[in-house]
Amino acid sequence: ILDAAQYATWIRTFGTSGTLQQAGLYARQAGAKAMIGAYLANPSTPDLVTANQQELDRLIVMANAGQADIVTVGNETLYNGALTESQLLAYIAYVRAGLKNPSVQVSTVDTWNELVSHPDVIAACDVVLANIYPFYENTPESNALAQLQSDYAQILAASGSKELMIAETGWPSSGSPPSNDLLAIPS
């Protein structure tokens, strides 16, 4: 984290277990802001319900210890079908209720189009955190920037007056195309 912080303003995690329980502390010590995320799975079994609860409880402890500027409740859980909107909203409310520091912002990270399709999720978040990947939308490289700008404009409009941050974006330099149509080619 110390090495990464010299190149970044924010350090983001995707979970709270194991050594990640100290990530926010290290990010802060390195002078970076910390976006600490809880990894959430589909709560289809009692073990996964327990695992989600433990993730959320660790997230709250870390935030209350001053280790987070933003806490994220899940990553692409709507996009990948891990959670329903009502489950995600309940988890966001649970985290918000457990926070003692009102300056810690609560959010979730999902694809821009899932967030646009779920205005109640946007309403529940303090800041909107969107993933925008023209590559995975199978956009040709020549149109990728225009597609990103269009996607951004749509999520910006849906965000209203809330701050919007692009949580993830990019174009792979190698690997497989996202579709058999071969419009988006890693390069």
What does this 3D model show about the protein?
The chain is of the alpha/beta class and 187 residues long. It contains 7 helices and 6 strands; from the N terminus they run H-E-H-E-H-E-H-E-H-H-E-H-E. The protein has a 6-stranded parallel beta sheet. The longest helix is centred in the N-terminal third of the chain and has 19 residues. It is globular.
Helix and strand topology:
Blueprint: H1 2-5, E1 10-12, H2 23-29, E2 33-38, H3 46-64, E3 70-75, H4 85-98, E4 105-111, H5 112-117, H6 119-124, E5 127-131, H7 144-159, E6 163-168
Parallel strand pairs: 1-2, 2-3, 3-4, 4-5, 5-6
Helix pairs in contact: 3-4
H and E string = HEHEHEHEHHEHE
The major pleated sheet works out as: 6 strands, parallel
- List unreliable stretches of 5+ residues: none
Instruction: Count all strands and give the number.
Output: 6
**Widest sheet: strand ordering:** 1-2-3-4-5-6
Strand content: 15-25%
Oligomerization state: single chain
Mean pLDDT: 94
Distance separating the two termini: 28 Å
Structural class by helix and strand composition:
alpha/beta
Shape: globular
Number of helical elements? 7
Classify the helix fraction into a percent range: 25-40%
What is the C-alpha radius of gyration, as a whole number of Å? Answer: 17 Å
